[in-house]
């Protein structure tokens, strides 16, 4: 087992348990057919717990001698600050262009900066991810997404 994977995964699992416990003390909302204040914190808790558990299970199942070293598997093609530099123009364009157009360009830029060369994957993923997020929040959670001042739809 690789301690560099097990220790952070265990810490994140513990953090999700503490965070989940803290969300139980949030007040309940009395409005009908609306999610309460603890709805999104519980979503975060469940996602963090599932991802941490998946990382631990993967580490327990995968043998160290069958797996390439971390340096062989991950070859960084870009420095992390480039993602931050792309995030600033995204936030500046978001109020004018709206969520979907700005996010499609942002995700495409992030994928190109990360070293993805396949244009089909870039186009598909940078379109599918914002569409999924838009429909999730707009129609399932009923949270309006920014439409932008230049977009009339």
* N-to-C order of helices and strands: HHHHHH
Low-confidence stretches: none
Structural class: mainly alpha
State which percent range the strand residues make up.
under 5%
Shape: flat
Proportion in helices: 55-70%
Q: How many strand units?
A: 0
Determine the number of helices (DSSP H or I, runs of at least 4 residues): 6
Please state the average pLDDT score.
80
Distance between the termini: 52 Å
Using only C-alpha atoms, the radius of gyration works out to 20 Å
Integer count of domains:
2
The largest pleated sheet is described as: none
Structure in words:
The relative contact order is 0.09. 67% of the residues lie in helices and 0% in strands. By secondary structure, the chain is mainly alpha-helical. The chain folds into two domains: 3-73; 81-140, no CATH class. Helix 1 runs antiparallel to helix 2 and helix 4 packs antiparallel against helix 5. The protein has helices at residues 3-23, 39-61, 70-73, 81-97, 99-113, 119-140. It contains six helices and no strands.
Descriptive terms for the model:
mainly alpha; 0% strand; 2 domains; flat; 153 residues
What are the SSEs and their pairings?
Layout: H1 3-23, H2 39-61, H3 70-73, H4 81-97, H5 99-113, H6 119-140
What's the gist of this structure?
By secondary structure, the chain is mainly alpha-helical. It has six helices and no strands.
């Amino acid at each position: 087992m690789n301690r560099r994977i097990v220790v952070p995964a265990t810490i994140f699992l513990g953090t999700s348990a503490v965070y989940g416990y803290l969300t139980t003390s949030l007040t309940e909302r009395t409005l009908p057919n609306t999610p309460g204040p603890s709805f999104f914190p519980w979503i975060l808790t469940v996602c963090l717990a599932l991802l941490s558990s998946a990382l631990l299970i993967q580490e327990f199942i995968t043998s160290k001698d069958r797996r390439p070293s971390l340096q062989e598997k991950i070859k960084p093609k870009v420095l992390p600050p480039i993602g931050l530099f792309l995030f600033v123009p995204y936030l500046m364009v978001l109020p004018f262009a709206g969520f979907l157009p700005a996010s499609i360009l942002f995700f495409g830029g992030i994928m190109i900066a990360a070293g993805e060369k396949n244009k089909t994957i870039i186009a598909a993923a940078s379109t599918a991810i914002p569409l999924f997020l838009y429909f999730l929040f707009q129609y399932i959670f009923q949270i309006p997404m920014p439409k932008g001042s230049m977009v009339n739809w």
